[in-house]
């Protein structure tokens, strides 16, 4: 399955260099990075929303599996956001002449990345697993609305949009041909499939590591592997 | 064309590492 996904991705990458360039860009031929930039942005958004849902579920149910899912989803959203930003910076250099323009869309996405980075910084501040899980789940669920605002609302405000270099109506105005779109969607589908696979493996690793710690006797746990507060074990000495 | 292909190879290596880690953890659990 892994092989198939990677071969599909490689095939789509080769295809991305064959489709006719999109004419709506200053440098049409060099705009092909869009094939990787857009799918990465879509994957970032999906995993950010999913991470918040997992965090809400953890706060409601306190089941450890939701904490593992929230962490894995946030890791994937961070990875996808880095990919989006790097491809965006390359696009900016080629199309607009500089690596960074403080463009509203660039800047708002940078803020989104900082918000995601703060999640991991917050987790590192707590040694106790239960506190760490609770605090990071609260943070993740509270940051969903600001992130969605920064991704979808702020760049489309009229006073912001008119000063932005970043295209926002290329899709709606039919700036991409059918061939272009099919490659973008193909790469998105394969990238999403690989991301979901990596996400599931991350969750499996987290749950297995928790199980190993439980078997080592380091933590008292409830039935589903959720660590409770650490307790001292009473050791009876034989007289 | 080379940079994206290098990224996909790195991704493949990473996916294999996760697989190995899972197998390692499962072996550790079955020993205990």
How would you characterize this protein structure?
The complex is a heterodimer of chains A (239) and B (32). By secondary structure, chain A is mostly helical. Helix content of chain A is 68%, strand content 0%. Chain A has eight helices and no strands. Chain A has helices spanning 2-16, 34-61, 64-96, 104-124, 129-142, 144-153, 158-161, 178-215. The radius of gyration of chain A is 22 Å and the shape is globular. The termini of chain A are far apart. The model of chain A has no long low-confidence stretch (mean pLDDT 84). Chain B is mainly α. Chain B contains one helix and no strands. Chain B starts with a helix and ends with a helix. The mean pLDDT of chain B is 85. The interface between A and B is medium-sized, with 21 and 18 residues.
Helix content of chain B: over 70%
Largest sheet of chain A: none
Q: Count helical runs of chain B.
A: 1
Shape of chain B: rod-shaped
What is the number of strand segments of chain A? Answer: 0
For the terminal residues of chain B, how far apart are their CA atoms? 48 Å
Mean pLDDT of chain B, nearest integer? 85
The end-to-end span of chain A amounts to 60 Å
Helix and strand element order of chain A: HHHHHHHH
- Average pLDDT of chain A works out at 84
Task: Give a short synopsis of this structure.
With 239 residues, chain A is mostly helical. Chain A is built from eight helices and no strands.
Features:
heterodimer; A: 239 residues; mainly alpha; 8 helices; 0% strand; globular; B: 32 residues; 94% helix; rod-shaped
């Amino acid at each position: 399955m892994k092989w198939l996904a990677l071969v599909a991705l490689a095939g789509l990458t080769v295809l991305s260099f064959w489709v006719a360039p999109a004419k709506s860009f200053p440098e049409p031929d060099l705009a092909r990075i869009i094939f990787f930039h857009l799918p990465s942005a879509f994957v970032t958004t999906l995993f950010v929303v999913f991470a918040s849902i997992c965090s809400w579920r953890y706060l409601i149910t306190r089941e450890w599996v939701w904490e593992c899912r929230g962490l894995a989803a946030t890791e994937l959203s961070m990875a996808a956001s880095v990919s989006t930003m790097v491809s965006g910076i390359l696009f900016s250099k080629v199309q607009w002449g500089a690596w960074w323009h403080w463009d509203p869309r660039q800047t708002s996405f940078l803020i989104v990345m900082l918000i995601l980075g703060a999640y991991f910084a917050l987790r590192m501040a707590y040694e106790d697993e239960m506190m760490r899980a609770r605090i990071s789940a609260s943070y993740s669920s509270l940051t969903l609305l600001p992130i969605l605002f920064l991704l979808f609302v702020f760049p489309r405000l009229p006073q912001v949009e008119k000063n932005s270099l970043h295209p926002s109506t290329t899709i709606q105005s039919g700036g991409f041909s059918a061939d272009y779109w099919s490659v973008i969607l193909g790469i998105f589908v394969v990238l999403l499939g690989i991301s979901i696979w990596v996400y599931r493996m991350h969750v499996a690793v987290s749950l297995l590591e928790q199980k190993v710690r439980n078997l080592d006797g380091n933590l008292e746990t409830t039935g589903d592997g959720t660590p409770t507060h650490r307790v001292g074990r009473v050791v009876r000495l034989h007289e | 064309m080379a940079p994206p292909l290098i990224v996909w190879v790195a991704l493949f290596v990473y996916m294999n590492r996760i697989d190995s880690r899972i197998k390692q953890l499962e072996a550790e659990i079955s020993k205990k």
